[in-house]
Amino acid sequence: MLKEKEKRDWRFKVADRELKIGLLLAVIHFLWWYGFAYGMGNGPVSGYKYIWGLPSWFFYSCIVGFVFITILVILSVKFLFKEVPFEEEGNER
């Protein structure tokens, strides 16, 4: 019964598409964080470069990464997500 309803209701397609976008954003954020944290932060501490008093790997992975993913999420919601009504369509009950 639920599968049949999912096939008819266009909102499930929108929700599925937005789920995939959300998962993609999470993967991008993780790869950004992991790449900078372990790519730049695995050397000896004496070789670290510092930005605003923070190790560069931390600055790029946590500070810049947060700003980057926040902007990406805002743009995704603004341009890719749709407004979906939560009310039942018609009298299908």
Could you characterize the architecture of this molecule?
- It is a single chain.
- With 93 residues, this protein is mainly alpha-helical.
- It is 67% helix and 4% strand.
- It is built from three helices and two strands; from the N terminus they run H-H-E-E-H.
- The protein has helices at 2-8, 10-40, 56-79, and strands at residues 50-51, 54-55.
- The longest helix has 31 residues, at 10-40.
- The two termini are 13 Å apart.
Q: Runs with pLDDT <50, length 5+?
A: none
Give the SSE order as H and E letters: HHEEH
Distance from N terminus to C terminus (CA atoms, Å) equals 13 Å
**Category from helices, strands and their pairing:** mainly alpha
Overall, the morphology is elongated
Major sheet details = 2 strands, antiparallel
User: How many extended strands?
Assistant: 2
Trace the largest sheet across and list its strands. Answer: 1-2
The number of helical segments is 3
Strand content: under 5%
Q: Please tell me how large the radius of gyration is.
A: 21 Å
State the share of residues found in helices, binned by percent: 55-70%
The chain-level mean pLDDT equals 87
Oligomerization category of the chains in this entry? single chain
Structural topology:
Elements: H1 2-8, H2 10-40, E1 50-51, E2 54-55, H3 56-79
Antiparallel strand pairs: 1-2
Keywords, separated by commas or semicolons:
93 residues, mainly alpha, two-stranded antiparallel sheet, 2 strands
Task: Describe the structure concisely.
It is built from three helices and two strands. By secondary structure, it is mainly alpha-helical. It is elongated.
